[in-house]
From TrEMBL:
This is Tetratricopeptide (TPR) repeat protein. The lineage of its organism: Bacteria, Bacillati, Actinomycetota, Actinomycetes, Kitasatosporales. SMART domains: TPR. Gene3D superfamilies: P-loop containing nucleotide triphosphate hydrolases, Tetratricopeptide repeat domain. It comes from the Bacteria. It holds the Pfam family TPR_12.
Length: 715
């Protein structure tokens, strides 16, 4: 572990050493910048694990969302490898510990400005504390950077320049770049400029941190050498919600419609080492430089200009996200936005994939934009950004990222007294809570939305809330209330000529009939819904009803048709790049494959579904996948393995309060352990009967009778 004050110096040294020892680690090297001292949010361990796992070849959609699960996968992948892991700019032990491999084969190099004593005490880290560069090495660094650009400078003058930079590597590099870019200016004059800058900072500072003041001095020296336009852009970039940004967001901050001019200014900042280019038209700040840019904006930019710049970039994100929603979620209501001002140029998209790529790349910035809007009192922008982001999220986004900013948006709408906005945000919060199995909060949110929409006389919004409340009841297997809500929603949608939503609610009604075991009613609703979705060109809706059709076909014994319907649904999910739909519909494909005797294929489908749902933090559907695995293993005669998966599923359903699926898992578990322990099997069947005693639909009656029969046969 390398600790010290000069962040960039530690980074350079760590990367240089990593390059020198690369042959000792034949399986490669991993690097993560944890941004522990960035003015914004540091990189969370879960996010860092996601990046490291994708670097190890794990598909992004297969990375577990749960921190412990992701860390376990990471450790298992590194167990037999010799890899060097560089964790740069860590702030806390909590950032680092989940990123430590579990074996002694790999080495972790951590850089930090803190001592991180916990790593030394608990994890056996060896601390190496770095000070500033010795004078000879500082002079050598200046010579290397300026070589070929200037006449050979006097050793004593270079030593004086190094002392003014406090012999800090980041400051030395910037100073050397300044010297190299002015080859005909005497070093005496450059030193005088820097000394003048130093005197200014001395007068303004307390002198408590000499190294920090030296860094600021060199930053100021380089900053004041910029053109007026480049300097203005630099300080305005400090107002950007996150440390990384694209060309067009930078242009929005500057209020420039000339993209080529903005690129030129950014290139000049990169050339002055005040900014780093990470990809074509993509840039990021070093955390110290971002802090300096923020400080310069506060001191040099008039409040009215700061306010205007911040509003421009927030509006740029809002309008661009709205354009992305048009491709990602076109059926959802669009927020009524005022036209974009003439000094910003929001992006437009020509295809679905381009919109998804942008939404994925900018997701963290969009989340932070909502927080920034709230912190700076832009209530309208806050709720609008939160609303648009819900509908413009990339399809494989984690279920855990939006609720906090959704609540922030709701609070802003409440401050404004905007009831329609409150209704929309209650709706999206209800949907978000469903995704992470917080059903009580989901129902409360949807009921709040229903009340608001009835108060406003919003009949279409009321119908949407009824449909969503029906889904909440469906997921909790309250089938009669679910059906009533869907039927009421269908009538209201038809009344409003909302064909898309009427077809969606009809699909939900078909699912309800199927879950209840009323197959003729389900088949009738399926035929109507499938025709409606296809007429509307609604691929997502078509895939969803194909899933239900596959289930009905399977139960009627038409396994070939069931398999074809499930595969067609999955193909739609893949074409939409929607991991949530893919994970859910893989359950149906696994059921069809299992029914047809394709056990290896079914195991693959269930296991992929479980992986996706773990990443999406949907424990309920993850447990359904493990239940499927348990059923396949029982059919293969691997009863012990089947029992393990049924236990895992039953435990998860118990934790979630899902008595119905817990009972099904216990039924499978009882069958798996029957040969070894009839008494244990009877206990599980008895508990399953208790859990489903209050259900009265045809399927529940059939399941209960089957369990009672098996229980009687073992008595």
């Amino acid at each position: 572990m390398i600790a010290g004050t000069a962040g960039a110096g530690k980074t350079s040294l760590a990367l240089r050493w990593a390059h020198q020892v690369r042959e000792r680690f034949p399986d490669g090297q991993l690097y993560a910048n944890l941004r522990g001292y960035d003015p914004g949010e540091p990189v969370a361990a879960r996010e860092a694990l996601h990046r490291l796992l994708t670097s190890l070849g794990v598909p992004a959609e297969a990375v577990p969302q749960d921190l412990d699960a992701a860390a376990a996968l990471y450790r298992s992948l590194l167990a037999d490898r010799r890899v060097l892991v560089v964790l740069d700019n860590a702030a806390t032990v909590g950032q680092v510990r989940p990123l430590l491999p579990g074996s002694a084969h790999s080495l972790v190099l951590v850089t930090s400005r803190s001592r991180l004593s916990g790593l030394a005490v608990r994890d056996g880290a060896r601390r190496l504390t770095l000070g500033v560069l010795p004078e000879p090495e500082a002079v050598a660094l200046l010579r290397v950077v300026t070589a070929g650009y200037r006449p050979v400078d006097d050793e004593r003058k270079l030593a004086e320049l190094a002392r003014l930079c406090a012999r800090l590597p980041l400051a030395l590099r910037i100073a050397a770049e300044r010297a190299a870019s002015h080859p005909h200016l005497r070093l005496d004059d450059l030193i005088a400029d820097l000394r003048d800058e130093s005197a200014l900072w001395d007068a303004l500072s307390t002198g408590d941190d000499e190294e920090a003041e030296a860094i600021r001095t060199v930053f100021a020296w380089s900053y004041r050498a910029l053109s007026e336009q480049a300097a203005r852009l630099f300080r305005l970039l400090g107002l950007h919600p996150g440390p990384e940004f694209g060309l067009r967001a930078a242009a929005a901050l500057a209020g420039s419609t000339s993209i080529s001019r903005s690129r030129q200014l950014l290139d000049s900042l990169v050339g002055a080492h005040l900014l780093e280019q990470t990809a074509p038209d993509r840039y990021q700040f070093h955390d110290l430089l971002r802090a300096y840019a923020i400080d310069q904006a506060q001191h040099e930019e008039p409040p009215i200009e700061r306010e205007a710049a911040l509003r421009r970039v927030l509006e740029w994100y809002l309008h661009t996200a709205d354009a992305a929603q048009g491709w990602i979620n076109p059926a959802e209501d669009r927020v009524t936005l005022t036209p974009a001002s003439d000094d910003i140029s929001p992006l437009t998209f020509s295809e679905y994939d381009a919109a998804v790529d942008w939404a994925e790349r900018e997701h963290d910035n969009l989340l932070q934009a909502i927080r920034t809007a709230a912190d700076t009192g832009h209530d309208r922008l806050t709720w609008q950004l939160a609303t648009v982001l819900w509908n413009a999220q990339f399809p494989s986004v984690s279920g855990t990222s939006w609720p906090s900013v959704g609540r922030t948006g709701l609070e802003a709408a409440e401050r404004m007294g905007d009831r329609a906005a409150q209704g929309a945000l209650h709706t999206y919060l209800g949907m978000a809570y469903t995704r992470i199995n917080r059903q009580t909060e989901s129902l409360e949110s949807h009921e709040n939305a229903l009340t608001i929409r009835r108060d406003l006389g919003d009949r279409l919004g009321e119908a949407r809330s009824l449909n969503l409340i029906g889904l909440n009841h469906l997921r909790a297997r309250r089938l009669d209330p679910a059906a009533r809500h869907f039927e009421e929603a269908i009538f209201a949608f038809q009344e409003q000529d909302a064909a898309h939503w009427a077809a969606t609610a009809l699909s939900n009604l078909a699912t309800t009939h199927y879950r209840a075991g009323r197959l003729p009613e389900a088949a009738t609703a399926i035929d109507q819904a499938l025709a409606a979705h296809r007429a509307l060109g609604d691929q997502r809706g078509e895939g969803n009803i194909l899933r239900v059709l596959s289930d009905v076909q399977r139960e009627r014994g038409d396994f070939e048709a069931s398999l074809a319907s499930a595969q067609a649904a999955l193909d739609i999910a893949l074409s939409l790049r929607n991991l949530r739909l893919e994970g859910f519909w893989l359950l149906t494909l696994g059921d069809a494959q299992q029914a047809k005797g394709q056990y290896a294929e079914a195991l693959t489908s269930y296991q992929r579904s479980a992986t996706l749902h773990r990443r999406l933090a949907d424990r309920s559907r993850e447990a359904l996948a493990w239940q499927g695995v348990g059923e396949v293993y029982r059919r293969l005669g691997r009863h012990a393995d089947g029992a393990d998966f049924h236990r895992q599923a039953a435990s998860a359903h118990c934790d979630l309060g899902d008595g119905w699926h817990q009972a099904l898992a216990l039924d499978g578990l009882a069958s798996a352990v029957l040969g070894e322990s009839p008494e244990e099997a009877r206990r599980h069947w008895t508990e399953a009967l208790r859990l489903i005693a209050d259900f009265s639909d045809p399927r529940s009656v059939a399941v209960r009778e089957g369990i009672e029969r098996r229980l009687a046969e073992t008595s």
